[in-house]
Amino acid sequence: MSLARRNLFQDKTRLALSIGGVALAVMLILVLKGFLTGINRQITSYLDHSPGSIVLAQEDVVNLLGATSLLPEGIIQKAETIRGVNKAIPILSQFVILDLHDKKQPAYMIGYDQKQGGGPWELSAGREPRLKREIVFDRVFAERHDLKLGDQVEVMDKDFTIVGLSKGTTSWMTSYFFIRKRDAEELLLASDATSFLLITTSDGANMDDILRRLNNISDVNALTKEKMAANDLNLFAKIFSAPLKLMVGIAFLVGTMIVGLIIYTATVERQREYGVIKAIGAKNYFLYQIVLTQALFASLAGSALGILLANGAAQWIMSARPQFLIVFDPVDSVQALLAGLGMALIASIFPTRVVASLAPAEVFRK
Amino acid sequence: MIRLAFRNLFQNKIRLVISVGGVALALLLILSLDAVFSGVERQITAYIEHSGADVWVSQADVRNMHMASSSLPDSIEGKMKYVPGVVSVTPILYLTNNVVAGDERNLAYIIGLPENAEFGGPWNISSGQSLPGEGGVIINRNIAEKSGIALGDEVKILGKEFKVTGLSEGTASQVNSVAFISMKDFEKMRGSYDTISFLLVKVGDGESPEVVAARIQSQVRDVTAQTRDDFAAQERQVVKDMSTDVITIMNMIGFLIGLAVMALTVYTSTLSRRRAYGMLKALGARNTDLYLTVLAQAILSVTLGFLFGLALTLLLTVVVPLFGSNLALEVSLLSLLKVGGVSLVIAAISAMLPIRQIAGLDPAMVFRGR
Fold first, then answer.
1. Which of A260, A281, B200, B281 is most open to solvent, judged by the fewest CB atoms within 10 Å of its CB?
2. Cβ separation of B12 and A268 shorter than 8 Å?
3. Do A106 and B26 touch (CB under 8 A)?
4. Residue spans per domain, chain B
5. Three-state SS across chain B?
6. Which sequence spans correspond to the domains of chain A?
7. Chain B residues touching A188 at Cβ < 8 A
8. Would you call A312 an interface residue with chain B, using a CB distance cutoff of 8 Å?
9. What is the ipTM of this complex?
10. What is the pLDDT of residues B289-332, one digit of tens each?
């Protein structure tokens, strides 16, 4: 083992470059995964914080985001007469594209009634919209576009005044904004329209019974908030998983190649020494161990550094671009170390072949 | 010196393969991410590009289709016919929702088309009818195959059952597909009969779409009129503006990985040629000549890596759809120029580490047998 260590540490620059290369590849894998976990948290933020435990949507609508829902007229009264339902809070919501400073910004509009709830859950400044054409924007989103309280912003050809700034309502992809439900109805040319009902239930009520009764109402679909959040996650996972897997796969290959290069070079340089060891009776198995130890060290050291780098990079990205949320799951770090192990094993294939094909007599001919 | 760089590079084939492969993969990271977003841009505008309309009319200030909603009173259609240059107007209804086939849910633009719609229908039908009748739906062939759906089978949209009467091509993207139903069904489903989403306008022969769009804009209140190209450009801009930060971060990481691989390769290769460089120095070669050799070697490796990375990306554009994915990759000229530039920077920086080695090399070393 000391031979493996000496081989590796003899050239510190080379070792540093190889560990650095693996670390970057592992960092990329971790940042990508953390990015996806962050998106998942941001995607469900409204459902996680809005009131109620059940969402009533149009029949066959199972998502909050990505689907348009329009509930039949008189649905609030119908829902509230169901035993166990405490309150039915209506919202009118729709994705819109805002043109802000020549930038296209998709945003999810929530039209709600302040007295009933369903609006922003945390304000960093200002108040909720009470009057006509007032709007609550996300704090980070507003900062990115240099908007502050009292500024005007155009939504679907109508000017709104920013009266509040909300927290935890943005992501890199989109952002929530909140207006009065009546204003949303006006924008969408849909008076008295309701997209979803957020249903709160009485204490101790049986959730399954309430869901069944709500689903007996025609043209609607009732589901728990958790289920709807899971559906939204699935929807976005479908969109992001293919490109993400592609990137992670490439990063893994890069890491493997870096370790492969360093171990191969180190092995070829030490060919004569390996020949001498073979000539004095060492078995191939012993030499494989030396090669593999080097690969494992470079990979695992690189992976460990990669985990640290990923944390640093995530902090830097989130402070430079607050709309990004990068969340690391401890399982991801374990997976990164396993990826390092995989890189080491694959990277050892070539160098072990070099060692295996080495003729012990070779060393004496030179 | 260039010949020496060549020989250094090609003498050890395995090292060459690993280094070129490493750089190629790092550049592939940048190229493929760019290609993914370029592909999405193309896919997302497919419906608009193939709509057959010269001008798209939407609700005032609504300039997009994706992640947007447009509502126009149906009376606008009548007003449009008085605008000079307009020869035909097709109203469509639009919303985004799931097409449900068994347990499979596929997000789709649901387009409601009037009977005998001139524009806005599916542009490439692989089987079945080319326009949806009442109770019928035309869905994407790939989506149908994945969900085990054939012509005559039923799917559900917003809780209502529709019979699949046609299968279309080119209407699916990584994000969603396009499903066509009749306007009457759409209205029934929504319980709304007096609004439309967009008007697709055809202009007369010899008329400029730009001029007609401007006329509509000035003569009809509360609408936004855009030429098809402008509307598609607005859609592409959404993807661009959403992806800029992600692409920048990934490009930086790809650049750093490429740099690490290349620096490592050039460094190890120079290290193993220390004696040769020492010999050249002892024979009178100047440091500049040796620097140029290392630089040439780095540029050659990176060029090969770039070409290999490009070939891999092009291969991915062909292979990925074969696995049934709707992910479309498209390599753009801009991306090639960017990655080309990045490659040169990688080569220049990675050559700096061995340059220091060479500068510190003692020509007498070679005679001491080190």
1. A281
2. yes
3. no
4. 2-44+243-368, 61-221
5. CHHHHHHHHHHCHHHHHHHHHHHHHHHHHHHHHHHHHHHHHHHHCHHHHCCCCCEEEEECCCCCCCCCCCCEECHHHHHHCCCCCEEEEEEEEEEEEEEEECCEEEEEEEEEECCCCCCCCCCCEEEECCCCCCCEEEEEHHHHHHCCCCCCCEEEECCEEEEEEEEECCCECCCCEEEEEEHHHHHHHHCCCCEECEEEEEECCCCCHHHHHHHHHHHCCCEEEEEHHHHHHHHHHHHHHHHHHHHHHHHHHHHHHHHHHHHHHHHHHHHHCHHHHHHHHHCCCCHHHHHHHHHHHHHHHHHHHHHHHHHHHHHHHHHHHHCCCCCCCCCCHHHHHHHHHHHHHHHHHHCHHHHHHHHCCCHHHHHHCC
6. 2-43+239-365, 72-218
7. 69, 71
8. no
9. 0.71
10. 878 888 888 888 888 888 998 998 899 888 887 776 667 788 88
